[in-house]
Amino acid sequence: MIEIDKVSKWYGQFQVLTDCTTRIAKGEVVVVCGPSGSGKSTLIKCVNGLEPFQSGSILVDGTSVGAPGTNLPKLRSRVGMVFQHFELFPHLSITENLCLAQIKVLGRNADEAREKGLQLLDRVGLKAHAAKFPGQLSGGQQQRVAIARALAMDPIAMLFDEPTSALDPEMINEVLDVMTQLAAEGMTMMCVTHEMGFARRVAHRVIFMDQGQIVEDAAKDDFFGAPRSERAQQFLSKILQH
Amino acid sequence: MIDLQLVLDNRELLTEGMLYSLQLTAFATLGGIVLGCLLALARLSAFKPLSLLSAAYVNLFRSVPLVLVIFWFYFLIPYFGFQIGPDKSVFITFTLFEAAYFSEIIRAGIQSISRGQLAAAYALGLTYPQTMRYVILPQALRNMLPVMLTQTVVLFQDTSLVTIIGIKDFMGSTSVVASNNGAMTEMYTFAAIAYFCVCFPISMLLKRLHKRIAVIR
């Protein structure tokens, strides 16, 4: 589904990604972790072309992201993305947030889009909030709406860029629950997250990044059982202490 | 101080003058916002020549006095063989001049919207024009509304400058009445009060309007 092959990226002289290679199969849930500044967010943003990269290639369902002729809006409409800071559109109601891209990008009519949106809103447990504006919801609620908004496009895969990092601790679980449910339904997911509990329960594979490189790419049990790299061991010992 | 009888006797001329001033303001505001929007988008474009061209335009107009631009267009356009008369000349002048100011306001407004909003819109598959139209500009316009309206009030006051090329806007009409009747003090005091009566309530009204439509964050 997602094939990342020898991707490198530079900001001027500074190399942020070095030869990153991995594959995510259909239905697979992959967690990307690593210290801050390791390039995990940059890598996930390369997958839907939000960040350009200078060498290597990324194929999403057979379409090359970096190729000059690629219709990026079309490709992005098929890959859902959830951001650290939710990024709901504050000037639109929750319903309008859910409908905008369905109508403008997929060409669905207003009734169809609304029905789909409300159905997904119900699924994330927020149907009662349809008429509100994003600013009236808590962080956790906003993030669940953001997930529903991405799902409304019927994506073939979902990208999560630190979806719980900006949330108060008591709101993290309501978002992780939605993500867990999504994974159980067979959604292909790439998640940048520090939630190791979530990784343990839900992920099939864990990718560990450091200084722009994929240092470890292993099945979940192998990663948490006995990571091969020293750097990953250090990271885990720090993050699992609390 | 004010000769009300004189004002009443010339009410038609003065009303026409006021309408002209308001029309010019409305036209230049709308035209200036549309053109200013395009200039702002050009200025923020990643395509350097477009960005530089827009910057040059804005800097040029912001560096010369409005009076000069009014004169310049009034004499320059006929020089190129277009006989459009003073009325059209000032409508064009004000639109072009105000566009430079509005474009800077709009540019600041667009830049006030976080890059995350842009990313979120793109991630949903919206194209650049759709992202601007449905996500960025609606938020940016709300943020810049107070500054924009202040600019419009300033513009309304600046329209009085068209008097210098003989147009009978409100100021021009007032001058005519004043000199024909030898009532300088009375008429100019009246004009000052009239300008104040238009500008001040608008400022107040807009302040309240802005509170009502401000985005909840």
Keywords:
heterodimer; A: alpha/beta; 6-stranded mixed β-sheet; globular; B: 217 residues; mainly alpha; MetI-like fold; 9 helices; 0% strand
Structure explained in plain terms:
The complex is a heterodimer of chains A (242) and B (217). Chain A is built from 9 helices and 10 strands. By secondary structure, chain A is an alpha/beta fold. The mean pLDDT of chain A is 93. Chain B has 217 residues and is mainly alpha-helical. The longest helix of chain B is centred in the first third of the chain and has 33 residues, at 11-43. Chain B starts with a helix and ends with a helix. Classes of the chains: A alpha/beta (242), B mainly alpha (217). The A-B interface holds A 45, 48, 50, 72-81, 83, 85, 87-91, 100-101, 104-106, 133-136, 149-150, 153 and B 114, 116-117, 119-127, 130, 134-135, 138-139, 142, 215-217.
Strand content of chain A: 15-25%
Strand fraction of chain B: under 5%
Number of helices of chain A: 9
Gyration radius of chain A, in Å:
18 Å
| H-E order of chain A | EEEHEEHEHHHEHEHEEHH
> Which topology of chain B does CATH recognise?
MetI-like fold
- How many helices of chain B? The count is 9
CATH class of chain B: Mainly Alpha
The string of secondary-structure elements of chain B, in order, is HHHHHHHHH
Query: Which oligomerization state do the chains in this entry correspond to?
Result: heterodimer
Q: How many strand units of chain A?
A: 10
In short:
The complex is a heterodimer of chains A (242) and B (217). Chain A is α/β, with parallel strands linked by helices.
Detail the topology: elements first, then pairings.
The complex is a heterodimer of chains A (242) and B (217).
Chain A: E1 2-11, E2 14-24, E3 29-33, H1 40-47, E4 55-60, E5 63-64, H2 72-77, E6 79-82, H3 94-104, H4 110-123, H5 139-151, E7 157-161, H6 169-184, E8 189-192, H7 196-202, E9 205-210, E10 213-219, H8 220-225, H9 230-239
Parallel strand pairs in A: 3-8, 3-9, 6-7, 7-8
Antiparallel strand pairs in A: 1-2, 1-4, 4-5, 9-10
Chain B: H1 4-9, H2 11-43, H3 48-62, H4 66-79, H5 85-111, H6 115-123, H7 128-158, H8 170-181, H9 184-213
